[in-house]
Structure formats: C-alpha cells, structure tokens
Amino acid sequence: MSLQISTLPNGLRIVTEHMSGLKSASVGLWVQAGGRHERPEQNGIAHFLEHMAFKGTTRRTSLQIAEEIEDVGGYINAYTSKEMTAYYARCLSADVPLALDVIADIVLNPIFDQKEIETERHVILQEIGQALDTPDDIIFDWLQEVSYPDQPFGRTILGPSERVSSFTRDDFIDFVGAHYGPDQIILSASGGVDHEAIVHQAREIFGNLRPVGTAELVPAQFIGGERRVVKKLEQVHFAMSLEAPGFRDPNVYAAQVYAMAMGGGMSSRLFQKIREERGLCYSIFAQAGAYEDTGSVTIYAGTSKDEISALTQLTVDEMKRAAEDMTEAEVARARAQLKAGLLMGMESPSTRAERNARMLSVWGRVPTVEEAVGKIDAVSMQDVRNFAATLVGARAAVALYGPVAKAKGLEAIRERLAA
To answer: How many CA atoms within 13 Å lie on the side-chain side of 46?
Structure first.
C-alpha cells in the first residue's frame, strides 16, 4: 500500500492509495457540504443538489454521463451525509482519467435545467414518501430531530416536502457558490491508481478555481427529547439515542466497543437477552455514531404493542448492568468484530477511498489502519464499563412509531437508568 497526499495552491486536497495487484480503482470527490451546512430554509438542498449533478452538464447530457461510465463497465453514484456530499465511481485502472473527468464535470458544470429540476423534485418527493412508509427508516430521522432539536445537525437529509417543493435554480447556484470551492473538496482515489497522474489531471481541471473559505458550522448540541407517532402497524418501532463521543474524543473507541458488545451481532447482550432468551423481538441492535463535534449510541428494536414495555425496561436494565459486569470475553469479542470489519473493509478500494477522504477531512491527515487497530486493542474491559456508566446520566432521546399506547416514555426511561 502506498498512500500519498498533495494539496493544490487553491486548497484542493488529493489523497491516493495504490493497492498492489488491483486492476480496478475507486475515485471520487468528497465535498465538505452536507446537511449540517444548510440554513433552515435550505434544508434538503444538499441532497437535491446531489441528484441534480447527474441530470446534465455543459458538456454531457444525463444519458451521456451514464453511458460514458457504463460503456467501460464502470459504476457511478453519490450520497449526502450530515457533513459531506460524495460523488464517486468504480472502474478499471485504465479508465480512472475518464471517471475523474466525468465526476469533475458533474460537480463543477451542472446546468440545472428547469425541466430536470421539476422531474427530480418529483423523484425526491417520492423518496420522502417512501421513507415515511418505512418505519425502521423514518424513525431514525425523528430520533435525530429530537436528539438535536432546532439545529442544522438535527434536520433530515431529505428535507421536508414543503422545502423540496420550493427550491429554485438560483437556490442551487447559491449553495454551490458558497460551498463547492476547491478548498472544500477532497479528491480521493484508491486501487490501481497513479498519484502523480491524478495530481496532474486535477491541476488541469481544478487549478484555476477560487477558494470559497470555510463555512462556519453551528455546533451540534445533544439536547434529547421524545417523539411518539401513533399509527396502525403490526409492530412498535423503538429507537433510543444517548449522547456519546465525537471523532476527536479519545473515548470514541470505547463507545464503539461498547455498542458492538451490547448490540453488534447475534452474540451481543441485547440480542441474547431480549431476542434469544425472552423472545421479545425479531430485530434489535446497537450502534455508535461519531461526527466532528458530537456522537451518539443508538439502540433500535421492533416488537409488539404488548411487549414494548418489557423490552424497554430490559434494554435499560442491560445497559445499567454493563457498567458493573461487562466481561473481558465480551470486550475481546467486540474488539475482534470491530477489527475484522475494519480490515476486511480495507480490501475494497471504495472503502479505502471513502475512509481516506473522511480522515483527511477530520484530522488533516490519514491515520494508518494499524493506528486504528491499536486504539481498538487498547480499549480495556474497565474502559467499556466506565463508558457504560457515563450513559446512565447521559442525555437521551426516544422515538416511537406504531401502536405505542403501552410504551414507556422518556422520563420513565431516564428514571430507570438513574435508579
């Protein structure tokens, strides 16, 4: 493996990682403009803009964008997150210059044709409707909203229908002008790639662009709260979130090991106690999410209206118990699962390209995989117990969807956690 980083005079950063023996590559642009960069009246525009990038440029029609990549057997896609929007392609090594040219074109030269805006507006409204019809999807949007109320970080990526319905061509142009400068873009490529060739091409494509400056972020503050939506469904969908470390907090690895031990697989505590021993649900899991200045541990389960109270109480009891009796065997298993997931993911050039871009964005450098593995290995049983103890008094949020009449509310959960 050979990781190299270069920066153009205008601030565009380029990170490549050559993976010996690979005949394919992943290349993309990671723009530091996601959901949390939107003003209230812009909520949903970063995601809408991602869609519009594929609808035609000054050089290519939407069909030509797809055809040029697929004619060489490649794949192109994009996604929007809280903190970034990514445009990327997977292709054979020989086609990296073509892939980078197409991706740069859709990011730098979209035409925002009015007819295409209206077509894609309808598509996104359908996407919003589909999310509302998917309980184990929409509940996480609601959980985010009550965790970070009235903040950019708490708003949905898709945005509300009324906002999506009102965006104009000028709105897209304004957002791009404010956030899509070279100093806010990271070009990342992994696999069978040549660093100097990519830097040379990037200099030709991006070298004359002017920086836009760093957008001032509204700090994320986990407040917590409850959202309860009654609907005639077969199950109650339950999601709970507690404040946890962000990327820059040294306790972030303890949070990840804790979440894995509690609900990261079939051997985890919550799965064994609540599903296997008690049969209270079909699906239950825990996960830890980390961002620049905040993080959360989230637990999700789906159960019947008659079992939701017992499931909630047992979940809280297991969380409390972890602070006292989390075992070395559980921690060792969770560490092994995290390391295996990391190392197996690193065999994919797409995963490496994404990780490198994200790490460069957060740290200004790319920590080695060995460094990450070392930090996971350094998490002790006592570290996990100590982290579990912090959750007892942490801010919490709860979202409930379905026949929720018998579900315990946030105050009851807080009281049981603190008892």
So the answer is: 28
Q: Which one-letter amino acid corresponds to residue 251?
A: N
Residues acting as catalytic residues:
50
Element (H, E) at 285: strand 283-290
Give the model confidence (pLDDT) of 237-254 as tens digits.
999 999 999 999 999 999
Q: Which long-range contacts (CB under 8 A, 24 or more apart) does 414-417 make?
A: 416/313, 416/316, 416/317, 417/316, 417/319, 417/320, 417/391, 417/392, 417/393
Strand ordering across the sheet containing 396-402: 226-230, 396-402, 236-244, 295-303, 283-290
Report the candidate in 348, 342, 336, 406 with the shortest Cα–Cα distance to residue 369.
Answer: 342
User: What are the residue ranges in the chain where pLDDT is below 50?
Assistant: none
SS3 204: helix
Question: How much is the pLDDT for 396?
Answer: 94
In angstroms, rounded to a whole number, what is the distance separating the alpha carbons of residues 101 and 205? Answer: 8
Contact 70, 104 (CB under 8 A): no
Distance CA 171, CA 178 (A): 11
- Per residue in 53-96, pLDDT (tens digit) is 999 999 999 999 999 999 999 999 999 999 999 999 999 999 99
The first and second tokens of residue 85, run together, are: 């929007």
One DSSP character per residue, 29-75 reads EEES--GGGS-GGGTTHHHHHHHHTTS-BSS--HHHHHHHHHTTT-E
| HSE-CB of 111 using CA atoms within 13 angstroms | 12
Spatial separation of the C-alpha atoms in residues 296 and 302, rounded to whole Å: 20
Helix 169-179 to helix 114-132 angle (10° resolution) is 80
CB atoms within 10 A of CB 177: 10
CA distance 116 to 63: 13
Contact 93, 23 (CB under 8 A): yes
Instruction: Note if the pTM is more than 0.85.
Output: yes
- Rounded Cα gap, residues 180 and 116, in angstroms: 21
State how far the Cα of 419 lies from the Cα of 407, in Å rounded to an integer: 19
C-alpha distance across the termini of the chain, in Å: 51
The strand pair at 226-230 and 396-402 is best described as parallel
- Helix then strand count (H, E) for the chain reads 16, 11
Beta bridge pairs of residue 229: 401
